[in-house]
Amino acid sequence: MKKHTLFHSWIIILGWLPGFLLSLNSALADDAAAASQGIEISQASFVLSDSETPPSAQSAWSSTSLPDIWKLTHPDAFGTGWYRFQFDYKGLDAYEIYALYLSRMSLNAEAYLNGKKIGSGGSFTEPVSRNWNRPLLFTIPPDTLKATDNTLYIRVIAPQNSQGMLYPPEINLLHTLQPEYEKARFIRITLNQTSSLLIVGIGLLMLSLWWRRKQDTAYGLFGLAAFVWALQSLNFYIITAPIPTTLWEILVNASFQAIAALWLISLLDFVGIRLKRFNQLLWAILILAPVTLLLTPANYFMLATDFWHLVTMLVVIFGLALLAKTGFVDRNKDARLLLMTLSIILLFAFHDWLIHTNVPGINAWLITEEEYLMQFSAPVLFLIVGLMMTSRYVGALNNYEQLNQELEQRVVSKHQELNDNFQQLQTILKEQATLEERERIYQDLHDDLGAKLLTLVYRAQNPNNAELARSALQDLRDVVSRAGDESSALNDIMADYRIECEKRLGDVQIQLLWDNQIEDDTLQLTQPQALNLGRIIRETTSNVIRHAQATELAVALQSTNHHLLLEIQDNGIGLPASSDKSAGRGLSNIQKRAALLGGEVHFAASASGGLKLSLYLPWQLISRQPI
Fold first, then answer.
1. Where are the transmembrane segments (predicted)?
2. What are phi and psi of 261, to 5 degrees?
3. Across 421-490, where does the E strand assignment appear?
C-alpha cells in the first residue's frame, strides 16, 4: 500500500471542501422548510423615512418584493427605510409562543407588530449596530399576533458606503425557529470567530519566525496577511465598529486587496517566484484601493468596490498561472498545492463577488440565502501554508542543528588534531634539542677524546695496543658520524666497513675476501641500524685478529627470500668444542647487537675449520629509497 503524503491528503480535503460549502446553505433551507409550519412574507410596501416609529399610511409607500436589494430597487437610497407587511396567520394557537426570524438584513433592523415593538438589533445612530451577517430572532409577546389583519413594520438602515437589503421575514413557533437561528448563527458568527483565532495564531507563528530570520520576508508578509484577514473578519461578527460606518466600509472592502497582495507576494516568494514588476503592481493595488475608495462619492462606492474586487481576482488568476508553471513545469510540489488551494479560494471569491455586485438573475441561481463562502475557504489556505512554512522552517532548523553537530564534531576532531600536532611539535623540539646537545657532546668527544686516542695510536708500543686504540677511535667516529636519524645506502655503508676491515686486517697480515652480492642501490639502513651492523662486523674482526690465528677472513652479503644474510667466517682455530658460544663478552655483544637490529645471529664451524657467523635481517626492517 502506498503511503499517503501530506500533499495527497490536502488534495482530498480540498476536493471535498467545495461540495460541503456549496451544499451548506441548501441544507439549511431544506431543514428550515421541513420544520416550518409558519409563514414567510415576501410582499411588502416600502418607504424611505427617518422616522423612529412606523410612518403613517399617508407616507409614500411603494410595493416591493423580497428579497429587496437596495442597489437594484433603490440605487440612490441611503439612510433609514421602513417595510410594511400585512398578513393573516391561520392556525394560530393562543397557547404557543411565536417568534419573528430575520435571516438577513442590512445594516440593522427592528420590528413592530400590531403597534408593539417586539425587538431591535441595536443602535440606529453612529456607531450603527452591524447585523448584516447576523440573523435576528425576536420573540412575539403573547396576544400580539392575531389570526387576521396583522400589520408588521420592519425598520432597516443603510448608511453611506453600505448596501441596504432585507430578506423575507418568517413568523413561526419559537421552538421551530430557534434551531434555524442557532444554526445560522453558528455558521456565520461562531465559525468566523473560531477561524479568526486560528488565523491569528498562525500569524503570530509566522511573524515570530520572521523575527528570528528577517531575511525570510515571505514569513513576515504572510503573517501580516493573517492579521489583516483576522481584522477583516471582524466585519462578519462585530456589532459595534470602533469608527464611523462609512470609514469602516472603506477599510473592509480595501482589505481584500491588501490580503490578496500580501498573499501573492509572500506565496510566490515562498516557492521561488520573484517578479519585481508584478510585486510592484501588487503593492500599487494595495495602496491605491483604499485611496480611491476614500475619494469615491457614495453613489459610486459600490461600483468602485466591485471594480477593485474584479481587478484583484484578475491579478490572482495571473498569480495562479505563475504557480501552475512552477508547479508542473519545474515540478514544485508546494507550488501545486498552493495552486489548488488558491483556485478554490478564487472560485469562492468569484461567487461572493457575484453576490456583492447583485447581478440580476444570477444570484438566485447561485444560492438562495446568499451565504458568503470565501470566509470559510481562506482559513484552509492559512492552515496549509502555515503547515508548509512551519515544516520548511523546522526542516531548516533540523538541518542547522545537524550541521551544528557536524561542526562541533569537526571542531573536536580539529582540536584533537591540533593537540596531536602540538605534541608532535613538542616531540620534534625535544628531539631537536636532544640532537643539538648530542652534537655538542659528540663534537667535544671528537675534538678532545679523539685527539687523545689518535695520539695513543702513534705512541702504542706494540701492535695490539695500537689496534685497540685504533678500534676505540673508529668507534668514536661511528658514534659521532652515525648517531643521527638519517638513512644511508646499504652499499655505501658496507663500502666504508670494507675499507676499515682491509686496513685493520692488512696491518696484521690477514687476507680479506669481500663478496657483496647486493646490487640494489635503493636499500637503506637507518643510522642506528648501520651503527649496530658495523659493531657486529668490527667485533667479529677484532675477535679474528686477537684469537683466531687466522690468515684469511671472508665477508659475504647476499639476499634470501625472507632475509638479508651477512656471513663472516675465518680459517682459524675456531672455538674449542667445550666452550659456550654465548660465554665470551665479544660474542655476547654480537648477539645483543643482532637483537637490537631485530635479526638473528648463529655461530657455527666454517668449512676451513674456523668460526662462521650468520646474521639474518628480515626484509621488512630494511627500507628503500624512493626512486
1. 194-211, 218-238, 250-269, 281-301, 307-325, 337-356, 376-395
2. -65, -45
3. 487-489
DSSP state at residue 104: -
Check whether 154 has a pLDDT greater than 90. yes
**pLDDT at position 32:** 42
Q: Which of 97, 101, 120 is nearest to 41 (CA)?
A: 101
pLDDT band per the 50, 70, 90 thresholds, residue 338: confident
Using CA atoms, how far apart are residues 164 and 158, in angstroms rounded to an integer? 5
pLDDT, position 547: 86
Distance, in Å, from the CA atom of 45 to the CA atom of 62, rounded to the nearest integer, reads 5
Please answer whether residues 617 and 611 qualify as being in contact, where contact means their C-beta atoms are separated by less than 8 angstroms.
no
Report how far residue 204's alpha carbon sits from residue 209's, in angstroms, rounded to the nearest whole number: 9
Task: Note if the bond before 18 is cis, omega within 30 degrees.
Answer: no
Which DSSP string corresponds to 346-374?
HHHHHHHHHHHHT-TTTHHHH-SS----H
> Cα separation of 450 and 472, whole Å?
9
User: Bridge-partner residues for 48, per DSSP?
Assistant: 81
What integer is the mean pLDDT of 557-584?
Answer: 79
Q: CB–CB of 152/111 below 8 Å?
A: yes
313 near 346, Cβ under 8 Å? yes
DSSP sequence for 389-434: HHHHHHHHHHHHHHHHHHHHHHHHHHHHHHHHHHHHHHHHHHHHHH
Encode pLDDT of 91-135 as tens digits: 899 899 999 999 999 889 999 999 999 999 999 999 999 999 999
Q: Going along 23-126, which residue ranges are E strands?
A: 39-40, 43-48, 62-65, 68-69, 79-87, 98-102, 105-106, 108-113, 116-120
Predicted TM-score (pTM) above 0.90: no
> Given pLDDT bands bounded at 50, 70 and 90, which one contains residue 74?
confident
Check: CB of residue 508 under 8 Å from CB of residue 462: no
Question: Could you tell me which residues come within 8 angstroms of residue 190 by beta carbon, excluding any fewer than 6 positions away?
Answer: none
Q: Which residues pair with 615 in a beta bridge?
A: 566, 601
Sign for the CA dihedral angle at 71, 73, 77, 78 comes to negative
Whether the pLDDT of residue 5 is over 50: the answer is no
Closest alpha carbon to 543 in 520, 568, 526: 568
Number of separate helices (H) and strands (E) present in the chain: 16, 21
DSSP 516-538: E----TTEEEEHHHHHHHHHHHH
**The three cell numbers locating residue 498:** 670494507
C-beta separation of 306 from 356 below 8 A: yes
CA–CA separation, 276 and 268 (whole Å): 11
**Half-sphere exposure in the Cβ direction for 5 (13 Å, CA):** 7
Report residue 480 as a C-alpha cell. Answer: 659521532
Q: Residue 298 — pLDDT band, cuts 50, 70, 90? A: confident
**Helix, strand, coil shares, percent, the chain, to 5:** 60, 15, 25
Rounded Cα gap, residues 247 and 453, in angstroms: 118
Q: Which whole-number Å values give the CA distances from 357 to 36, 250, 372, 547, in the listed order?
A: 31, 16, 13, 131
- Residue 35 pLDDT grade (very low, low, confident, very high; cuts 50, 70, 90): very low
Q: Strand 611-618 relative to strand 600-605: parallel, antiparallel, unpaired?
A: antiparallel
- Angstrom distance (rounded) from CA 61 to CA 444: 136
